[in-house]
């Protein structure tokens, strides 16, 4: 796995001083020595090949050598996530980041439990996921909003929703062009009224197989179906 650090908004690419947290990660966690080649991610989502110049775990200087092209997902996917418990949201976000999801909208549904995780906790989880997978810019996070408002977000993309009522049916072929909105319910799924509202808003019901899936599993399966259709 490549070693990746976050470099903020450097004024001088030839002399970038990492903050204490990034220096500790580089020197103590990854045990990287001077002269090593690493990856660097800047605040605008740029990805660089960088060289470790000097310093220690309290402060390290790196030099940004070459800015690299940032790979893009094949499709733009927006997830409308019927909020499960906060811990489940945090468990799910790394997978959505790794799959290349563009945006996650947190949605209050009838069966949602608890409040949304705090912004700081979400940021820490996404930062760790970006460091692991090499994605320079993580998914945008918005909400919580109610379901009816969520269905108006990114109306330029077709809408799909995972519906447990289709468990007993075979999975139909999915044809997606530029991308889609994918709506997944919380534990217990959507209520009949919510399913009707999604259908009325033009969303198409999507089968995710014969078994009952947790929200975290359902979201990843639904995104994978769309991203790689």
Please give the structural blueprint.
Elements: E1 4-8, E2 16-17, H1 20-29, E3 37-42, E4 47-56, E5 59-68, E6 76-82, H2 86-99, E7 103-108, H3 119-133, E8 140-146, H4 147-150, E9 159-162, E10 179-184, H5 192-200, E11 204-206, H6 215-227
Parallel strand pairs: 1-3, 6-7, 6-10, 7-8, 9-10, 9-11
Antiparallel strand pairs: 2-5, 3-4, 4-5
Helix pairs in contact: 2-3, 2-6
User: For the largest beta sheet, what order do the strands appear in spatially?
Assistant: 8-7-6-10-9-11
Helix content: 25-40%
Report the strand count: 11
Low-confidence stretches: none
Instruction: Tell me the major beta sheet.
Output: 6 strands, parallel
Order of helices and strands: EEHEEEEHEHEHEEHEH
Tell me the strand percentage band: 25-35%
Secondary-structure-based class equals: alpha/beta
Mean pLDDT: 92
**How many helical elements?**
6
Q: From the alpha carbons, calculate the radius of gyration and give it in angstroms.
A: 20 Å
Brief overview:
The chain is 28% helix and 29% strand.
Describe this structure in words.
This protein is α/β, with parallel strands linked by helices. Helices cover 28% and strands 29% of the residues. The protein has 6 helices and 11 strands. The protein has helices at 20-29, 86-99, 119-133, 147-150, 192-200, 215-227; strands at 4-8, 16-17, 37-42, 47-56, 59-68, 76-82, 103-108, 140-146, 159-162, 179-184, 204-206. Strand 3 (37-42) and strand 4 (47-56) form a beta hairpin. It is elongated. The chain starts with a strand and ends with a helix.
